[in-house]
């Protein structure tokens, strides 16, 4: 049993009756944590599968209060950033800790703008993938492959090298993401245009073809930029923790980001935006909503309402609120307000927010609930949704990687386990095994 002895320590009684004092760590805001590191000196570990009660690190980048629905990047509320800032400025903020002055912003923006091309040799990697491969599979491969291009020149202990790696990643992700799409539909790759802003350039690479240059619609570009901002970081989620874990061994950062992309792909994490749209299509008609709500509530049925629920938010996800407003703007601009999927989404949200099951379990719409509808209205195909999440989250991943590597106390992440397998036993020759099993 653990009890707080004073402001600084918690006293814990061990199974042998001894008591030990464990320091209590306090952040600038949010719950405190008991520092359990001294336990291993007593031959004991803590057990917390799924990390529900474990802080894996101390970080100054992002703060979430899940009960209040608060998300702050370096102290700034996400609603203000989505409304007043732009993705490049948010990238600077996440990486450097403060909003840039004009000169720093211009220099940072210039560098991102001028690192957008990828090595021509990388095209060969695309040619090795089947055209119908999932773009997340391709993204995972090609981002990992960047480590082959930038390895010998990169010393992770050198802060300048780390900064260059961060810039390269942020700048090249839209190019790679658009290449994944172009490859899947058999179109030639479209080179980035440095005169365009970040979101505009991405839309240009997605939708232009060599014979017709698409000038990006400013409302779509703004919506895209806002989607990037809303996905930029979310503290120690599964993919960020994966990047930190991979990076803790000193691995190449491009390879670490590839590991983050793999973790993001799952439907419980970034893959949910794709799953939401598929779910809305399966529901197909508002008259079927009740049936699907019943399925989501049925313990025997594995079906879950995609885009609902969050490990940390037990209130409305603040990103979903902004996404909802952006969704209205984009659908109005594209004259898609009568999109049946949008109608289903709004009805579903309305019913779920009033339903006792969802209320009691605090299941609110999350960031992915509306993002898919916006992306669809922009013209992005469903299987590219999670790639866009990865593109935007890259800055969060690399900011956490930088923060971790710059910590002089950093050590390799190496969790322990409770072993539940066989205890020691002697090897039996193969001819005797059947006999022994009897
Ligand atoms: N629909 C129906 N029931 C649900 C849902 C849902 N979407 N989410 C959770 N529950 C139920 C779950 O069955 C469980 O019920 P019980 O207590 O009776 O066993 C209870 O709520 C708690 O669920 P949990 O799985 O223990 O919660 P978790 O914190 O492990 O999972 C989650 C969080 C996001 C994985 C989960 O809510 C989920 O699968 N949601 C749908 C997928 C989704 O939208 N994911 C995107 C997350 S936001 C983007 C990101 O940051 O990655």
Strand order of the largest sheet: 1-2-3-4
Query: What do the pLDDT scores average to?
Result: 92
Major sheet characteristics: 4 strands, antiparallel
Low-confidence stretches: 1-6
Radius of gyration, taken over Cα atoms and rounded to an integer in Å = 24 Å
Gross morphology is globular
Oligomeric form: single chain
Global structural class: alpha+beta
Could you walk me through the main structural features you see in this protein, from its secondary elements to its overall organization?
By secondary structure, the protein is an alpha+beta fold. The protein contains 18 helices and 7 strands. The strands form 2 sheets. Strands 1-2-3-4 form a 4-stranded antiparallel sheet, with no helix packed on it. The chain binds carboxymethyl coenzyme *A (CMC). Carboxymethyl coenzyme *A is lined by residues 234, 237, 268-270, 272, 296, 304-311, 361, 363, 366-368.
